[in-house]
């Protein structure tokens, strides 16, 4: 039988999370991918996490997603970025063994109940009366479902560029997907082109490692998943080198051969991930740029040179790479390329990542104009849960808002502002950064996920025990006062003036050690490190959080007022034509969302409220 | 935030008649109790009380007013509401609004905020939604106009520069946070501290100088300057129509700067006479000139007075660095022939005879117009100015707790909130602007 509740098209990072989430929800789900062997492939950088991105992985994990658990098994170098800065801006990152990552991802999917994996190329969408009914494969086979999640990544009309040479495909050695875009356009969706790129790959056996600086991982690797107790994989080293003036001269002399500068590529690429030629143009006075040499795994000699993605032709790549220290005699195993692909304007989507103009169709990942495995995975979770809800429980929705998670920040940014370059997560995108931390992702989302049905009882049990321990401990530290004699005895960094101080006040000071606290209050000795740290973080941010909580309260109020789907903005008096067209383009679903559309004034919001009240 | 008590002037701001200040929120009874003679435990809703309005701390009398109290939910907003119907004079309104702004958890209402609260509390029948939107739109548009166009040129530049500097600092901090692996120069902290310190000082200074409340309370400063014997004292006499200053023909009689308070067209004005600007070695007079220069730099308006019987058109070197409004006033036209009078450029100069009271009305009217202009003709101006002030104060509060010894994300939060506050005047700061700055300043792209 080719009938499912949910079909997920594409086996990348969005697709894996989407099908697993839908299946966890209890929906009968099928993942359709053009090649089963490449499910979970890391097409670019073999690493997961980073600033903002690491936060997203924790949130995926809090909703019982796969990415965190898989990287914990496949990570070969873990580092907590910003570990010298405060907890809100610490981001876990790990290098992955590319093969292990793929292997553990595929294993997780094969063990998932309610999930079938089907190999085939989807070329047709079956749409009837603005409702998606299923998909048809190149082979002619049809699959039907209540919900379809498209996670096509860079495969929609993908074109790869190496210098002036172009080839069709969504990834090196892979085909592209031609058919789907036409269906999306026919349904009235706005489609555009974006660009990204990936550097050459090097043969590690031909690198002169001895002259390079090393970069080590953390001594105590921080796992991504709240369920992982310890990282078991042995940790490897990475290396650092840099470009020099000779390198730069070769690249400059060959600018005319770049696909990027010769006008062949029209799509916009990400500014935070510029090609080496971009860097030379924008920062012309710099004589050197860093390159991180990252081994792709334990059992491969392939090395990923992070920092020199390019669209220069192969011969120029050969020439400039050989000028780099340590790479004088390196063998290039694959040339760098830029890739251009179709994306759907995310203004077409709602908070569930459902296409507003079609029922049952959800989009996740690069097709929505984002970049990055983590961004894709997070969207996959949201799209998967909502696709399942659509099939099982019509009318129900699962929305993470800006005050609940980076997922919410990302999706809200996408659907209210659109994109003009591939969207990547940064912590600076969140106005509630002090609250949306990697360390409390479970406290923010696991309960909510359990309520909707995407969190297993096992994880929920672990979470509940932690939460109980935490709330008891918080009550204790907030209600227990420090004795004046203890302040003196341990010379605690706390003022005796200005009223009695609690343990909570004490924990906000960095200089107080756990040992000292345990000695004064033996009751706290039995607390797990995790919970103790959690309390310290809350204590540290307490002053700022009070204000942020007020902001969140205001935000939630506007977020709670829904706008009718069929509202006719032209009928609302007092709205300028410009305002009507802005609102009509985005068609916001809540008053809060409407207020974040750029250029929408408080008066327009009042006019909408008034109209809604009367109609 | 949502629980704070809000206030606004509900009537048109002007000199005459009765003004209504409306206050909504949980602090209402507290405010009545602190600022009036009403015993709030006995207060009856929807009854009018005639009472004194006083300063909270000193109990200094501000006005006699009619106070009405509407108990939640039976009010316009659904919250506790009070209306203070007081005298419409600027000084009274300013002092009452100013007093309210000092109370904890009480703030000036945002545009449309009363209506919004009413809507949230399901108090409002929005049958005239269009009209309401128009009203709020008018208010918002006006503010935007002020924020972007009508704001005096130098003020606009000033605010934009502060914002620009703070955004730059924020982008540096965010770069440190979001791109720890990238080549970001470490030596930016001095730059950051200097910039923030500079903005802080400038805002502080600006708040001290540019206090519209203070101007309304204490008067606009008009400084009369001119050569010895130009007739400054006579002009003042003509203006005040009373002999408050000794008039003499002996040079150097009026050595000290002396302030005279006047009411000009309803606006409080301080007129300051200065020593004659004259090259001199006399130490006492030299000192007088220095004082005069200082007074000029503080002035809202300068009257540059000269004896037209000596020079028909005169220039004032002492005003070289002064950017405010200057009236060039040619005195003693009674000593001139009508041909000579015609030769005075009356586009630039106002012709008077202080002695014979000629041209004094024109001068007075010009001064009043200038004050009105600087105040703007619209009723929202005072509110807008208070809003600017509040925004700058909020900005300053956040800058004051900023330092680089705390965690960087908290330092960034301080600057972010400071930017947000100043953004209320200049237009909000979008994340994309920060990112643009980061990608423009640093080579990101590991």
Short précis:
Chain A has 615 residues and is of the alpha+beta class. Chain A has 19 helices and 20 strands. In chain A, a hairpin with a 2-residue loop joins strand 7 (122-128) and strand 8 (131-137).
Description:
The complex is a heterodimer of chains A (615) and B (446). The longest helix of chain A has 31 residues, at 529-559. In chain A, strand 7 (122-128) and strand 8 form a beta hairpin. Chain A folds into four domains: 3-195 and 341-456, 3-Layer(bba) Sandwich (FAD/NAD(P)-binding domain), CATH 3.50.50.60; 201-339, Beta Barrel (Elongation Factor Tu (Ef-tu), domain 3); 458-547, Arc Repressor Mutant, subunit A, CATH 1.10.10.1800; 569-614, Orthogonal Bundle (DNA polymerase, domain 1), CATH 1.10.150. The model of chain A has no long low-confidence stretch (mean pLDDT 92). With 615 residues, chain A is an alpha+beta fold. In chain A, 36% of the residues lie in helices and 18% in strands. In chain A, helix 2 runs parallel beside helix 9 (373-392) and helix 6 (245-253) runs antiparallel to helix 8 (314-321). Helices cover 45% and strands 17% of the residues of chain B. Chain B contains 14 helices and twelve strands. Chain B has helices at 28-35, 90-101, 113-120, 129-150, 153-178, 188-209, 212-218, 232-240, 283-298, 338-342, 360-375, 380-400, 408-426, 431-441, and strands spanning 5-9, 18-24, 48-54, 61-70, 81-87, 106-108, 220-226, 258-264, 267-273, 301-307, 325-331, 349-351. In chain B, the strands form two sheets. Chain B has a six-stranded mixed beta sheet with strand order 3-4-5-2-1-6. In chain B, strands 8-9-7-10-11-12 form a six-stranded mixed beta sheet, with helices on both faces. In chain B, helix 5 packs antiparallel against helix 6 (188-209) and helix 6 (188-209) runs antiparallel to helix 12. Chain B is flat, with a radius of gyration of 27 Å. The model of chain B is unreliable at 125-131, 137-152, 242-257 and 376-383 (pLDDT under 50). The interface between A and B is large, with 53 and 47 residues.
């Amino acid at each position: 039988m080719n009938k499912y509740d949910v079909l997920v098209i594409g086996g990348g990072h969005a697709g894996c999370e989407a099908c697993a989430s839908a299946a966890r929800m209890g929906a009968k789900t099928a993942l359709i991918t053009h090649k089963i062997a490449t499910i979970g492939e890391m097409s670019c950088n073999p690493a997961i996490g980073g600033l903002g991105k690491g936060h997203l992985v924790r949130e995926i994990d809090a909703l019982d997603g796969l990415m965190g658990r898989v990287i914990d098994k496949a990570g070969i170098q873990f580092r907590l970025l910003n570990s010298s800065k405060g907890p809100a801006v610490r981001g876990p990152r790990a290098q992955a063994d590319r093969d292990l990552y793929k292997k553990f991802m595929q294993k997780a999917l094969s063990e998932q109940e309610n999930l079938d994996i089907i190999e085939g190329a989807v070329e047709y969408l079956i749409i009837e009366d603005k409702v998606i009914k299923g998909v048809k494969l190149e082979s002619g086979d049809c699959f039907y479902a209540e919900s379809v999640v498209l996670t096509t990544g860079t495969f929609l009309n993908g074109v790869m560029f190496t210098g002036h040479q172009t080839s069709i495909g969504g990834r090196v050695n892979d085909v592209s997907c031609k058919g789907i875009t036409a269906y999306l356009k026919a349904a009235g969706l706005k489609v555009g082109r974006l660009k990204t790129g990936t550097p050459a790959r090097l043969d590690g056996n031909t690198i002169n490692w001895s002259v390079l600086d090393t970069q080590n991982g953390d001594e105590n690797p921080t796992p991504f998943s709240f369920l992982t107790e310890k990282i078991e994989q042995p940790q490897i080293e990475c290396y650092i080198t840099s470009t020099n003036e000779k390198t730069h001269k070769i690249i400059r002399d060959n600018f005319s051969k770049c696909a990027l500068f010769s006008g062949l590529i029209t799509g916009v690429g990400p500014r935070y991930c510029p090609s080496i030629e971009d860097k030379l143009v924008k920062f012309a006075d710099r004589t050197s740029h860093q390159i991180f040499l990252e081994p792709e795994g334990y059992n491969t000699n392939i090395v990923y040179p992070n920092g020199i993605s390019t669209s220069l032709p192969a011969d120029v790549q050969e020439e400039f790479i050989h000028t780099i220290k340590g790479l004088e005699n390196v063998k290039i195993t694959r040339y760098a390329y830029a890739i251009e692909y179709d994306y759907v304007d995310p203004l077409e989507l709602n908070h569930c990542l459902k296409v507003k103009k079609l029922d049952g169709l959800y989009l996740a990942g690069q097709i929505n104009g984002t970049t990055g495995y983590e961004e894709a995975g997070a969207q996959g979770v949201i799209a998967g849960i909502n696709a399942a809800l659509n099939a099982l429980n019509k009318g129900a929705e699962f929305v993470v808002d800006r005050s609940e998670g980076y997922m919410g920040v990302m999706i809200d940014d996408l659907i209210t502002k659109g994109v003009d370059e591939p969207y990547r997560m940064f912590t600076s995108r969140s106005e509630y950064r002090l609250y949306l931390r990697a360390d409390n992702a479970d406290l923010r989302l696991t309960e909510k996920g359990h309520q909707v049905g995407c969190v297993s009882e096992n994880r929920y049990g672990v979470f509940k025990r932690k939460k109980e321990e935490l709330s008891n401990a918080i009550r204790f530290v907030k209600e227990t006062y420090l004795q004046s004699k203890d302040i003196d005895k341990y010379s605690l960094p706390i003022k005796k003036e200005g009223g009695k101080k609690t343990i909570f006040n004490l924990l906000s000071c960095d200089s107080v050690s756990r040992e000292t606290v345990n000695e004064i209050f033996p009751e706290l000795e039995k607390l797990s490190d995790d919970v103790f740290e959690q309390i310290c973080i809350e204590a540290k941010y307490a002053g700022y959080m009070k204000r942020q909580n007020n902001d969140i309260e205001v935000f939630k109020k506007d977020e709670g007022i829904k706008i009718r789907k069929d509202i006719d903005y032209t009928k609302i008096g007092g709205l300028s034509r410009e305002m009507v067209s802005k609102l009509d383009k985005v068609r916001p679903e809540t008053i809060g969302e409407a207020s974040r559309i750029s250029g929408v004034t408080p008066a327009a919001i009042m006019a909408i409220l008034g109209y809604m009240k009367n109609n | 935030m949502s629980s704070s008590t809000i206030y606004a002037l509900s009537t048109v701001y002007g000199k005459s008649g009765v003004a209504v200040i409306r206050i909504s929120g949980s602090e209402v009874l507290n405010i009545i109790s602190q600022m009036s003679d009403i015993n709030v435990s006995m207060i009856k809703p929807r009854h009018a009380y005639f009472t004194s309005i006083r300063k909270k701390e000193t109990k200094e009398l501000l006005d006699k007013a009619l106070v009405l109290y509407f108990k939640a939910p039976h009010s316009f907003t659904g919250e506790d509401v009070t209306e203070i119907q007081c005298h419409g004079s600027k000084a009274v309104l300013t002092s009452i609004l100013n007093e309210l702004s000092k109370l904890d958890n009480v703030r000036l209402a945002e545009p449309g905020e009363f209506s919004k609260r009413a809507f949230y509390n399901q108090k409002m029948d929005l049958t005239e939604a269009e009209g309401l939107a128009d009203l709020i739109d008018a208010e918002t548009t006006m503010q935007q106009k002020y924020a972007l166009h009508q704001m005096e040129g130098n003020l606009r530049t000033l605010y934009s520069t502060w914002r620009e500097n703070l955004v730059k600092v924020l982008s540096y901090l965010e770069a440190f946070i979001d791109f720890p692996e990238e080549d970001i120069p470490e030596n930016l902290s001095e730059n950051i501290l200097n910039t923030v310190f500079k903005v802080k000082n400038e805002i502080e200074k600006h708040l001290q100088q540019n206090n519209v409340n203070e101007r309304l309370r204490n008067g606009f400063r008009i400084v009369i300057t001119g050569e010895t014997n130009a007739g400054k004292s006579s002009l003042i006499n003509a203006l005040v129509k009373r002999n408050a200053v000794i008039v003499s023909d002996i040079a150097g009689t009026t050595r000290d700067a002396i302030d005279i308070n006047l009411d000009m067209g309803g606006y409080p004005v301080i007129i300051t006479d200065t020593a004659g600007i004259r090259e001199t070695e006399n130490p006492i007079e030299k000192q007088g000139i220095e004082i005069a220069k200082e007074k000029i730099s503080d002035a809202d308006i300068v009257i540059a007075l000269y004896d037209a019987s000596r020079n028909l058109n005169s220039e004032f070197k002492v005003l070289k660095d002064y950017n405010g409004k200057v009236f060039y006033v040619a005195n003693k036209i009674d000593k001139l022939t009508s041909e000579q009078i015609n030769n005075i450029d009356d586009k630039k100069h106002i012709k008077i005879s202080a002695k014979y009271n000629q041209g004094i009305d024109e001068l007075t009217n010009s001064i009043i117009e200038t004050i009105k202009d600087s105040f703007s003709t619209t009723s929202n101006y005072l509110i807008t100015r208070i809003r600017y002030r509040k925004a700058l104060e909020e900005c300053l509060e956040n800058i004051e707790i900023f330092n680089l010894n705390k965690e960087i994300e908290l330092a960034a939060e301080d600057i972010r909130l400071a930017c947000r506050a100043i953004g209320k005047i200049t237009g909000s700061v979008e994340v994309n602007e920060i990112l643009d700055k980061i990608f423009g300043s640093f080579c990101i792209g590991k």
